[in-house]
Amino acid sequence: MNRRNLLKTISISLGASVISTEVIAKLANDSFLYTSRPNLLHKPLGKAVTAITIGAGNRGTVYGNFAAKFPDQLDIIGIAEPNEFRNDRYAKQHQIADKNRFKTWEDVFKQPKFADAVIISTPDDLHYAPCMKALEMGYDVLLEKPIAPTEKECRAILSLAKKKGRIVAVCHVLRYAPYFVKMRDLIAQGAIGEIVSVQHFEPIEHTHMAHSFVRGNWHNAKQTTPIILAKSCHDLDIIKWIINKPSRKIVAMGDLKWFKKENAPEGSTARCTDGCKVERECPYSAIKEYYENRKRLGVLDLPEDKTKHPEVIMERLKTTNYGRCVYRMENDQPDHYITSIQFADSVTASFSMEAFTSYHGRRTRIMGTMGDMVGDMEELVLSDFKTGKSVKFIPKAEDVDGYKNSGHGGGDWLLVKDFVQAVGQQNASILTSTIDESIESHIMGFMAEESRKTGKIMDIQV
Questions:
Q1: Residue 401 CA to chain centroid, in angstroms?
Q2: Residue 176: pLDDT over 70
Q3: Is-above-0.85 flag for pTM?
Q4: Is 3.40.50.720 the CATH classification of the domain at 49-173?
Q5: Where do the structural domains in the chain lie, given as residue ranges?
């Protein structure tokens, strides 16, 4: 194979080309783009899959946007959302008939089954009940992570899905991101020999932490789910998926160190809008984040042209949690969290979730017997011990199969695309994140939280 054909082959799909020492030597110091490899199980569908979205917040909107872009594949025909603004906006975007608009998930299931599938993108503590009811009524389900707040509920959903023969796709979208797919393929093909250990790092970014886990919907683990599941079950899952061996033991440590009342600066007030004397110098100022910089405004339910309504932003800061002082919330989520995991065949992994970073974007180091890999979702560098040469892989995630602005490294819409195919063909094997595949990493998360609270090394039993 000549150099041009070799590059073309591995750019399209690594499945047809083993990345050996000889190949790396030929490609040494090269950098090249690659896209996702096509799912060969996909087929033209006779009609669009129909779905009802339960929860029209951020994630429900992301999956709904796929339907708006590709109505021949997915047709959203129902919505359940108690927030009137979001319900109206979603119904307008998808031209949903009034008879199929509901305030609560319970209202959906009072009707006879009227769609192929249900998309559950409700708050974490409202995943279990609607999912169980959907399965009982014969719907297939696209279920936002985490599956449910407890191990018992996760196992119950798995059991009912098997009993009813329904498809449950868990939104572990990183499994569909070209970056992580490439990483897993390289390991599976022996590009770095036998895998020995993994170091994985999730920098949340300090203002994202303040937004989502101090002021936001996930600020209190007792009311939602622990941050290891709410934020980082993606990471536990991708570690498990990459290593592709059973997990055995886990130990975790972490705590809430900074966002507490005793750390509130002198002169600070209950809200950033209450005349706080240190607001101008505070890195967590709600006025700077939302009003001045116009960041993360989706949670404020603003009119469509938000730039013309700054007074509405300020009003929201005076009346919602998003304007409150980060040191005076009812938050309990750890702002730093580390875990160590033992897998089969003596493979180990460490995971660190950190709030206090100026950047975001997951970082991973993978150590093998014949090479290593280092990546940050922007690029993946494979180094070969025998030759001392390296190859750089750069995922083309901005436009994956025509899906522009698809989040999580291109994984969001690629997941939906596979889900549509799985439902349309009634073939769960098209998916890589079925509930069968996703249950273990959730159990890892539950065991990690138990370890963090008790100081014990926990056995993982799937």
A1: 20
A2: yes
A3: yes
A4: yes
A5: 49-173, 261-323
